[in-house]
Structures are given as structure tokens and as C-alpha cells.
User: Fold EpsG family protein from Chromohalobacter canadensis.
Amino acid sequence: MKLLIPTQGSFGYKAMCLALAGIYAWFLMGLDIDGYIDRANYLVYAKYSKEVFAMYAANGFSEMLTNEPLWLLFNIWLSEHFTPEDTLRVVIFFSSFLVSFLVLRSYPKYAFVLVLFILMPQVLKNNIIHLRQGLGITFFFLGWWCRYLPLRILFIGLAPLVHASFFFINALFLLNIAFSTFSVSIVWRVVYTLGVGVVLGVMGIWLADALGARQGGNAMYSGMGAGGTGLAFLFWIVFTVVLFMEGKAFLKNNFFAVSILIFYLSTYFLLPVTARVFESGMLVVLLASLGLTDWRRYAAYTLYAFYFCMQWYPLLGLPGYGWGIESAI
Assistant:
């Protein structure tokens, strides 16, 4: 399994990335705290995380572990120094700045495409309405690009304790380490990943309930599939086919990204949280696709542009870019 290691780039390019990431994070931090979906819920966390943490801890270690304890501890620490509103602002700035900077500096040759990636709604909303997921992605990316192995393991290992979707992402990550260690062929990697996807798709919510995770007992998730229209399923099948047509060398070096796609497609009609899991690994998939060559690269560019436009078109003109409270009423 090939880790994505950023190219160095010039000092001037890094300075530009810092400036752009700062502007990006400052803008998102400055959005109306009360004007977006789920902000009231995050304000509750900012005020009462200590009580929530104590409740989960009292119910046992497994329930505490599966209910994002690091997210709660982060809120507890911030609330000691900031108001609830400023706690949210710090979370938004920290997440959006670090992730955007790491993405922008990764491949200077593709700077314009990288800007497109961080402006995609499925990426952007993790720093507008899904703040916990945005922070989880931050921890994962800090580990993903860390050159010091103990810190890499630490940050990637901490990500599920911020957002539960990373239990699935990290399971795929460990599976890919096993694939590389035992030199498993591409065909069997696909078969094993599909098998893991189907098993977790069928048993995921039951397992969450058994471990005491809040998703397991949530009626919103129980007894239902992913609930998508199928259009996203078709789009990402096409994207996956393009990746497979690049050949065995590409697939071997980027199978972790490919496995995220396979998991998403295999659980699309089975697991209600599969879209959230995919969003946690979406940037890994997009960055891996930059390694495509010849016509496949241009096919990926066309798919980026199509996806970008189709994601943004329904949101144009809506309050809060489609995530405002008024849009949800």
C-alpha cells in the first residue's frame, strides 16, 4: 500500500497554501453560528460535553469508546477557555485550516484541481454542518501525511474517537496493510473487500447497538438502507471503473482509496451511514485519482467538473448554501 506523501513544492507555493487555507478557514469560521443546520446540537456539546462524557463512562468502557470520547474531551477542554460559540469557531478554524492546507500543498502540479476538491459540497459541509466529522478527518489526515510512524499511528488511531465513521475507514486501512504484507493479488483484494463490505453492511447497525454506540439505537438508522436515489451509486461506479482501467500497478499502490469506493458501493443499499463513511474517505479517493494517466486522467477531470456542478447546482440561491436553517424548514 502506497502512502500519499506530499511533494515539497517551493517556499512560495507553501506560503500561498498557508494564505489560501487561512482565508478558507477564516471565512468558514465567520459564518453565522446560529444560522446553520445542527449548530444548536453542537452548542449543546460545547456546554455539556462533561456531563455527556460522564454518562457514557458510567455505562461501561465499550459505550464510552464507541461514542466519540475524544470529541467530547476536545469540547470539554475548549469550553474551559472559550464560550460555546467560540468553541465552535475554534473547531471550524482548526479543522478547515489544517485539512485545506494539507490538501493544497500535497500536489502543486494540480493546484487548481485541489482547490476544486476543498470546495466540493461534500467536503465543505464537514466544516459547516458536520463539525465532528470535519475534526475526525483532520486527525486522520494529520496521521496520513505524517512521516514519523508512531505519530502516524497515533493520529489515525485517534480519528474514530472523534467520529465513528473512522472505525470503518480504519478497518479498511488495516485490511490494506494485511493485503500489502501478504502480497494479496488485486482480484482477491477486491473479493475480500466486497465480503467485508457486505458483512458490515448487514451487521453494522446491529454491532453499533451491541456496543452501545448512539447510532445503533437511533430509529433514524435502524431497519433501513442507505436511502439514496441511486444516482450517486451510478456516478461512483463509473469513477471506480476509470480507476480500474489504469491497471494493476496503480491499483496496487492506491488500493486503500479503491477499497473505500468498493466498500461504499457494496454497502450503498445496506448500511444507512455508508454515505457518511464515504465522505470521511472521499478526499483520499480524489487525491489518489490524480495519479491517473492518459485519457483516464481527462475522464477523471470531466467527472470532477460534472460532480462539482451537480452538487452545487441544487444549492445555489438557498439560504446558507443549502445548509441554512431556513433551507431545512
